[in-house]
Amino acid sequence: MNPNRPYVAYPQIKLNISNMVAPIDFEKDKVDLAVQFGGGNWPGVETELLFKDLIQPVCSPKLLKTTRLSELDELRKVQLLHSHYRRTDWPDWLMAVKRPDLLTDAGISFPSSVLTYQAAVEGVGVAVGQLFLLRNEIQGGTLVPLFNAPFERRMAHYVAWPKHRPLSRKARSFVHWLKAQIAESLAAGA
């Protein structure tokens, strides 16, 4: 049995997982906890930081076999892949490396980060990736970080719950487990 899976570590806790992009409305949605991306200061919500948003361009080794990408100017030769949900990733990263001139209207936009990253894995172009969330792809060699220039944004991933509803023992156990898994991944250099 693998204690890294919540249903093994806490079999008495029932999990229902949804991957909604919209901010959670605890008054309308019947959930105890949400993992939210943003500044962490939502009205009526308590939060705990899970991990910061560290971004960097990534691409497939397939693309690197046909296209040289060792200098920033070489980004002009490839498709920039954009996620609709994370539409400021490219502008933020290019501003951080002081090259906003490389941002164009060209490129391909996808409705989700998952599709954007899959297109990068397939060699379609270069995406800006969330390094923590792509650690398995990077460690497995299906994505390669480029330019050795990660950028930490002010936004992050938080676990959130309504202020007026204290966390139950089960919810607190899940938060503890979740944070321990993230800490373990960060400690392993992911």
Give your account of this protein's structure:
The protein is elongated and about 55 Å long. With 190 residues, it is an alpha/beta fold. Strands 1, 2, 3, 4, 5, 6 and 7 form a seven-stranded mixed β-sheet that branches. The mean pLDDT is 89. It contains six helices and seven strands; from the N terminus they run αββαβαβαβαββα. The longest helix is centred in the C-terminal third of the chain and has 19 residues, at 169-187.
Question: Can you give keywords for this protein?
Answer:
single chain, 190 residues, alpha/beta, D-Maltodextrin-Binding Protein, domain 2, 2 domains, seven-stranded mixed sheet, 6 helices, 7 strands, 27% helix
Oligomer: single chain
Q: Structural class of the secondary elements?
A: alpha/beta
Number of strands: 7
Low-confidence stretches: none
Mean pLDDT: 89
The CATH architecture of the largest domain can be given as 3-Layer(aba) Sandwich
- Return the CATH topology of the largest domain: D-Maltodextrin-Binding Protein, domain 2
**Mass-distribution shape:** elongated
In sequence order, what are the helices and strands, one letter per element?
HEEHEHEHEHEEH
**CATH class category of the largest domain:** Alpha Beta
The end-to-end distance, rounded to whole angstroms, is 23 Å
